[in-house]
Amino acid sequence: MLKGPQGTLFGRNVTGGAIVINTRQPDPERLAAEGDVTVGDHGERQARGFVNVPLGERAALKLATSVRQRDGLGRDRLTGREQDDIDSQNFRAQALFNVSDALTATVSADYSDDRNGGRTLSSDTLGDDGDVRTSELGIAQRFARIIAGASAKLVWRMPQGEITSITAYRKSQSGETYSGVGASYTLLTTGSQSITSDADQIHTLSQELRYASPKWAAGDFVTGLYYADEDGDRQLATRGLTVRTGVLASSTLANQSVQSRSVAVFVDGVVHLPAAFDLTLGARYTRDRKTASLTRSDLLRPTSNFTVTDLSGSWSEVTPRAVLSWTPRTGLMTYLSATRGFTSGGYNADASSAAVFRTAFDPETVNNFELGIKSQWLQNRLRVNASIFRMNYREKQELVNNTLSGVLAIFNAGKATMKGGEFEVAYKANSWLDLTGSYSHLDGRYDSFVLGTVNNSGNPLSNAPRKQVSTAANISIPMSFGYAVAAASYAWKDSYNTGAANDPNLQLPSFGLANLSAGIESRDRGWRLLAWVKNANDTDYLLTRSTQVVRARYAGEPRTFGISLAARY
């Protein structure tokens, strides 16, 4: 997990941090398999597993899959249709070839298919029956998404360093029909019920070429090139149904197309200084170009139709990074870092007029300063990490509704500041008990954000809880048959607002969730049987709110329980 702006070490640049997931590589030296099955309430059924097959002494094949189904947690009481159900299938194949002692090739392909009956957006005003697990939408919602991809990774190891090439292609297509208003037109007294059909298809090709130097006594460095080519097409149809009658009040269709090209060069290196100090310096140059087209048809008011093709803009930025760290002993490091992040500008393809579409939003930049410590104590039984940071945004990109134009689009907040701190501790109390805990504090504000007559300056940053706390315990007690195992965790999140305007109707209350599990495990760790419960305290909590025509809310999952059996070979 990499916090803050990234882009000098590998791949695409980001402003808010990155989670790097490295799957287990195929192993030519052994035949292996792992799997688990889960059953639970609400019709929960899940199976996951992989098999690793050696193909001679220098190659191996690994196949992995995950299939999950669950009945709906919600229901539309006007149609009787299930919502918040799960029907998911995922497959991945990886092949590793040790072409020579110096050259390794890994080829992978994956496919996933997810479907459900939409989310339970439940009115808490008109038509409300007091149950957040029922909606009053009255339409056949649906969601379907297919994602597929392939990649080839080549690693060439030499005395002079290591060269890595990663070529990847990914395609996704999705379709969704949903009501943006939390109540059926049959219940409304004003306005209309908005129903949206959204279909998109995205193709992405990327190439990364990276060189990592040897670990010299004086330091080391990594440098590379990155290229990404993405084509996205979207068809967005929106209908408005008149109150009571359901007569078509509005009907628009937007055909959108955006092509994005990104090229970058990056370098990052560390120099070992006297007295256990290290100085890390890095920089990235990114140039992004986007070309956008939009054809918007108003089926009831053809005079509002317009077509704009081949709008084009490019944005570039140099984003440096500097870190001074001090490691007086093994297991103790303090650091001070300064990094800059960049997100390119673009065009609002949901614009309702040609003038709005032609007006590009500006790129976002952020300067992040962080002071922290990472440490291990008591023969590595205790880990304590802490940091404080400040992020200064310029032209921060925010998705908001412009009350003058009625357009939900990306606009720039001139200035914003996020400051805070994080503390985490992990303690191995004894051979059978592990304890962890964390606390974070955020203070985010829009320093300057004016949209027409609406002044959001001084408001808290949206979707930024001020406080978060988590704690967990893992137990593994030796027994005559093997081990008795258990786990408990609790996470609490402070209240926060989902909009820049700090509308009290969009405020989400604080909540805490507890998860528990207990079971047995064989002495050789070859199999495990667990009983589990999620949201054990059966907390009612909200994921989002809506104020479109009526006030509505979308609730998180209730308490669920089940049994899992896992085995490995």
From TrEMBL:
GO biological process: iron ion transport
Residue ranges occupied by any TonB-dependent receptor-like beta-barrel domain in the UniProt entry: 95-535
A Gene Ontology term for the protein's cellular component: cell outer membrane
InterPro entries per UniProt: Beta-barrel_TonB (IPR000531), Beta-barrel_TonB_sf (IPR036942), TonB-dep_rcpt-like (IPR039426)
Keywords recorded for this protein, A-Z: Cell outer membrane, Ion transport, Iron, Iron transport, Membrane, Receptor, TonB box, Transmembrane, Transmembrane beta strand, Transport
Pfam (any one): TonB_dep_Rec_b-barrel
Coiled coil location: none
Membrane association type: Multi-pass membrane protein
Subcellular location: Cell outer membrane
The family this protein is said to belong to: Belongs to the TonB-dependent receptor family.
Protein name: Iron complex outermembrane receptor protein
Source organism phylogeny: Bacteria, Pseudomonadati, Pseudomonadota, Betaproteobacteria, Burkholderiales
